[in-house]
Specification:
- The protein has helices spanning about 10-25, 25-35, 65-70, 115-125, 140-145, 160-165, 170-175, 200-205, 285-290, 295-300, and strands spanning about 50-55, 75-85, 90-95, 100-110, 185, 220, 225-230, 235-240, 245-250, 255-260.
- A hairpin with a 5-residue loop joins strand 8 (about 235-240) and strand 9 (about 245-250).
- Helix 6 runs antiparallel to helix 7 (about 170-175).
- It has one domain (about 10-300): Roll (2,3-Dihydroxybiphenyl 1,2-Dioxygenase, domain 1), CATH 3.10.180.
- The protein is about 30% helix and about 20% strand.
- The protein contains 10 helices and 10 strands.
- The two termini are about 30 Å apart.
- The strands form 2 sheets. It has an 8-stranded mixed sheet, with helices on both faces. Strands 8-9 form a two-stranded antiparallel sheet.
- It is of the alpha+beta class.
């Protein structure tokens, strides 16, 4: 995912991806293997299906705040999703033109957590008295890119992180990582033949040593069979908590999407197939399991 122009959106996306790429080693491992096998020439040849962010559903933050960045850049708000057990809501946003990725933003329903978990989250967010994006020039790509990598609250203690982890691994991830890019997604269907199905691509991934998220199966399939998704298990990163303790915690990961051709367009020649001929949007049951790419039971398999 690389954009060549100096438009605000290009600057935002390039800044996000550069820092994400530095910290998620699976990104370069996958790209380099694809280049070595002649599947792509460089990272720029890989089509990014979507990027995703996690947020806390508290006043001045959450989806209502973060979405402003993308709405300002011409994205359109689409469907909303509800995840009962994980206590999450989410929205996705379609891009202003097909070369840009979709955006998926989720938020934790903090009010449904236990008093202990709510107290921790409140401790770190109560001093945010207005939407922090009100202070950012949303037409300045560099300012927005910097904002997305700045902490909005102080670093928690290890005990607080672990308390949240026991109740909501999503909450623990956000309290430490904040708005850091959660994942980018390779459009598998846009790759050359022999790599353009998830069965083949997952086999390629495992051959180069990638550990896949097995929650709900390695391939998560929508009820209509047209949206198929896989993901790596999250990278681990060594962090220092405010109490001075050092530990490894979940970072970000890579997702893979195969959007199949809609029934009414199946007779079109392959060279005539465009993005609008394929299944769009997302599927809650797929996303529910993709979230678990940062969960402890999946990460333990990677060690």
């Amino acid at each position: 995912m690389r954009f060549e122009s100096t438009s605000t959106l290009d600057i935002i996306l390039n800044t996000l991806f550069s820092r994400y790429q530095e910290n998620v080693t699976d990104v370069d491992l996958i790209t380099n293997a694809l280049v070595e096998q002649g599947v792509v020439r460089s990272q720029s040849d890989i089509v990014n299906d979507h990027i995703a962010f996690r947020t806390l559903g508290v006043e001045h933050l959450g989806i209502a705040s973060l979405e402003k960045i993308f709405l300002r850049q011409g994205y359109t708000k689409r469907d909303r999703y509800y995840f009962k057990v994980k206590k999450l809501d989410a929205n996705w946003y379609s891009p202003p033109s097909p070369e840009y990725p979709r955006v998926f933003i989720s938020e934790l329903r903090v009010g449904e957590l236990s008093p202990a978990a709510r107290e921790i989250i409140t401790k770190y967010t109560r001093d945010i008295h207005e939407d922090p994006l009100n202070k950012i020039d949303l037409d300045d790509g560099y300012a927005v890119g910097e904002f997305l990598h700045q902490p909005l609250w102080s670093t928690p203690t290890k005990k607080e992180y672990e308390t949240l982890l026991k109740e909501s691994e999503y909450a623990a991830w956000v309290i430490y990582n904040r708005y850091y890019l959660n994942h980018y997604t390779i459009s598998v269907h846009a790759l050359p033949e022999d790599y353009n199905t998830l069965e083949n691509f997952n086999q390629f991934l495992e051959e180069i040593g990638i550990t896949l998220n097995t929650a709900g199966g390695k391939i998560k399939v929508s009820p209509d069979g047209l949206l198929r998704q896989s993901s790596t298990v999250s990278a681990l990163k060594e962090v220092k908590f405010s109490c001075g303790n050092i530990a490894e915690i979940a970072g970000s990961y890579v997702e893979f999407a195969e959007r199949r051709i809609l029934p009414q367009f199946r007779d079109l020649p392959r060279e005539q197939i465009k993005p609008e001929h394929r299944r769009d949007g997302f599927e809650a049951q797929n996303a529910d399991k993709i979230f678990e790419s940062t969960y402890s039971d999946q990460i333990r398999k990677k060690k």
